[in-house]
Amino acid sequence: MTLQIGDLIPEFTLADQDNQEVAIRDYIGRPLVIFFYPKDDTPVCTIEACSFEANYNEFKNLDAEVFGISADSIKSHKRFATKHGLTFKLLSDSQKEVEQLFGIKRNLFGLLLERITFIFDREGRLLHRFQSQFNGKKHIKEALAALQDSADQ
Questions:
Q1: Catalytic positions
Q2: Residue 135 has what pLDDT?
Protein backbone atom coordinates (compact mmCIF):
# COMPACT_ATOMS: atom_id res chain seq x y z
CA MET A 1 0.00 0.00 0.00
CA THR A 2 1.31 3.46 -0.89
CA LEU A 3 2.41 5.65 1.99
CA GLN A 4 -0.38 7.73 3.51
CA ILE A 5 -0.25 11.37 4.65
CA GLY A 6 1.36 11.46 8.11
CA ASP A 7 3.32 8.22 7.64
CA LEU A 8 7.01 8.25 8.51
CA ILE A 9 9.49 7.89 5.69
CA PRO A 10 10.78 4.32 5.44
CA GLU A 11 14.47 3.97 6.25
CA PHE A 12 16.66 3.02 3.32
CA THR A 13 20.16 3.34 1.94
CA LEU A 14 20.90 3.46 -1.79
CA ALA A 15 23.89 4.40 -3.94
CA ASP A 16 23.77 7.65 -5.90
CA GLN A 17 25.11 8.43 -9.38
CA ASP A 18 28.62 8.84 -7.89
CA ASN A 19 28.39 5.42 -6.19
CA GLN A 20 28.16 7.09 -2.77
CA GLU A 21 25.82 5.51 -0.23
CA VAL A 22 22.93 7.74 0.80
CA ALA A 23 21.15 6.85 4.05
CA ILE A 24 17.88 8.76 4.10
CA ARG A 25 17.93 9.01 7.91
CA ASP A 26 20.93 11.36 7.53
CA TYR A 27 18.61 13.88 5.87
CA ILE A 28 15.85 13.89 8.50
CA GLY A 29 15.70 17.43 9.89
CA ARG A 30 15.17 18.91 6.43
CA PRO A 31 12.16 18.70 4.15
CA LEU A 32 12.61 15.94 1.59
CA VAL A 33 11.28 15.57 -1.94
CA ILE A 34 11.60 12.06 -3.31
CA PHE A 35 10.40 11.38 -6.81
CA PHE A 36 10.19 7.94 -8.34
CA TYR A 37 10.44 7.79 -12.11
CA PRO A 38 10.42 4.92 -14.62
CA LYS A 39 13.66 5.25 -16.61
CA ASP A 40 16.66 7.50 -17.25
CA ASP A 41 16.71 9.49 -20.48
CA THR A 42 13.15 8.76 -21.60
CA PRO A 43 11.07 11.77 -22.70
CA VAL A 44 8.83 12.41 -19.68
CA CYS A 45 11.52 11.36 -17.19
CA THR A 46 13.98 13.79 -18.78
CA ILE A 47 11.43 16.62 -18.65
CA GLU A 48 10.71 15.83 -15.01
CA ALA A 49 14.36 15.59 -13.91
CA CYS A 50 15.37 18.72 -15.85
CA SER A 51 12.42 20.61 -14.36
CA PHE A 52 13.51 19.62 -10.85
CA GLU A 53 17.00 20.85 -11.75
CA ALA A 54 15.69 24.13 -13.20
CA ASN A 55 13.86 24.77 -9.91
CA TYR A 56 16.51 23.30 -7.60
CA ASN A 57 17.38 26.69 -6.09
CA GLU A 58 13.75 27.17 -5.06
CA PHE A 59 13.87 23.84 -3.25
CA LYS A 60 17.18 24.81 -1.62
CA ASN A 61 15.66 28.14 -0.52
CA LEU A 62 13.02 26.09 1.32
CA ASP A 63 15.89 24.01 2.85
CA ALA A 64 14.59 20.94 1.00
CA GLU A 65 16.66 18.13 -0.45
CA VAL A 66 15.58 16.46 -3.70
CA PHE A 67 16.19 12.83 -4.63
CA GLY A 68 15.22 10.99 -7.81
CA ILE A 69 14.86 7.20 -7.61
CA SER A 70 14.56 4.59 -10.33
CA ALA A 71 15.69 1.01 -10.86
CA ASP A 72 18.34 2.15 -13.35
CA SER A 73 21.98 1.35 -12.60
CA ILE A 74 24.47 3.72 -11.01
CA LYS A 75 26.24 3.95 -14.38
CA SER A 76 22.99 4.89 -16.14
CA HIS A 77 22.25 7.54 -13.49
CA LYS A 78 25.74 8.98 -13.93
CA ARG A 79 25.28 9.30 -17.71
CA PHE A 80 21.82 10.82 -17.26
CA ALA A 81 22.98 13.33 -14.62
CA THR A 82 26.04 14.33 -16.63
CA LYS A 83 24.17 14.66 -19.91
CA HIS A 84 21.51 16.94 -18.39
CA GLY A 85 23.56 18.75 -15.73
CA LEU A 86 21.59 17.32 -12.81
CA THR A 87 23.08 18.33 -9.46
CA PHE A 88 20.66 16.58 -7.09
CA LYS A 89 21.13 12.92 -6.19
CA LEU A 90 19.76 10.13 -8.37
CA LEU A 91 19.48 6.92 -6.36
CA SER A 92 19.69 3.45 -7.86
CA ASP A 93 17.00 1.09 -6.58
CA SER A 94 18.13 -1.76 -8.84
CA GLN A 95 16.63 -4.40 -6.52
CA LYS A 96 13.31 -2.47 -6.41
CA GLU A 97 13.29 -2.72 -2.62
CA VAL A 98 12.69 0.98 -1.89
CA GLU A 99 9.81 1.25 -4.36
CA GLN A 100 8.25 -1.64 -2.43
CA LEU A 101 8.83 0.14 0.92
CA PHE A 102 6.94 3.14 -0.49
CA GLY A 103 4.18 0.92 -1.88
CA ILE A 104 4.70 1.96 -5.47
CA LYS A 105 3.11 -0.11 -8.18
CA ARG A 106 4.33 -1.18 -11.58
CA ASN A 107 2.03 -1.23 -14.60
CA LEU A 108 2.26 -2.99 -17.98
CA PHE A 109 3.03 -6.44 -16.59
CA GLY A 110 5.40 -5.02 -13.99
CA LEU A 111 7.56 -3.10 -16.46
CA LEU A 112 6.52 0.52 -15.94
CA LEU A 113 7.04 2.15 -12.54
CA GLU A 114 4.47 4.69 -11.37
CA ARG A 115 5.68 8.28 -11.58
CA ILE A 116 5.04 9.55 -8.06
CA THR A 117 6.51 12.26 -5.85
CA PHE A 118 6.55 12.24 -2.05
CA ILE A 119 7.12 15.36 0.07
CA PHE A 120 8.20 14.88 3.69
CA ASP A 121 8.48 17.43 6.50
CA ARG A 122 11.53 17.96 8.72
CA GLU A 123 10.45 15.10 11.01
CA GLY A 124 10.17 12.69 8.09
CA ARG A 125 6.36 12.65 7.98
CA LEU A 126 4.61 12.54 4.61
CA LEU A 127 3.03 15.91 3.86
CA HIS A 128 1.90 15.32 0.30
CA ARG A 129 2.17 12.87 -2.56
CA PHE A 130 1.43 13.41 -6.20
CA GLN A 131 1.09 11.01 -9.08
CA SER A 132 0.94 11.83 -12.80
CA GLN A 133 2.43 9.38 -15.25
CA PHE A 134 2.59 11.78 -18.19
CA ASN A 135 2.95 15.28 -16.72
CA GLY A 136 6.49 15.41 -15.36
CA LYS A 137 6.52 19.20 -14.86
CA LYS A 138 3.48 19.15 -12.59
CA HIS A 139 5.45 17.15 -9.99
CA ILE A 140 7.68 20.18 -9.39
CA LYS A 141 4.73 22.56 -8.97
CA GLU A 142 3.03 20.18 -6.54
CA ALA A 143 6.20 19.68 -4.50
CA LEU A 144 6.99 23.41 -4.25
CA ALA A 145 3.39 24.23 -3.27
CA ALA A 146 3.39 21.56 -0.54
CA LEU A 147 6.72 22.79 0.84
CA GLN A 148 5.58 26.42 0.75
CA ASP A 149 2.32 25.55 2.53
CA SER A 150 4.30 23.71 5.17
CA ALA A 151 6.72 26.63 5.62
CA ASP A 152 3.80 29.08 6.01
CA GLN A 153 2.33 27.11 8.92
A1: 45
A2: 66
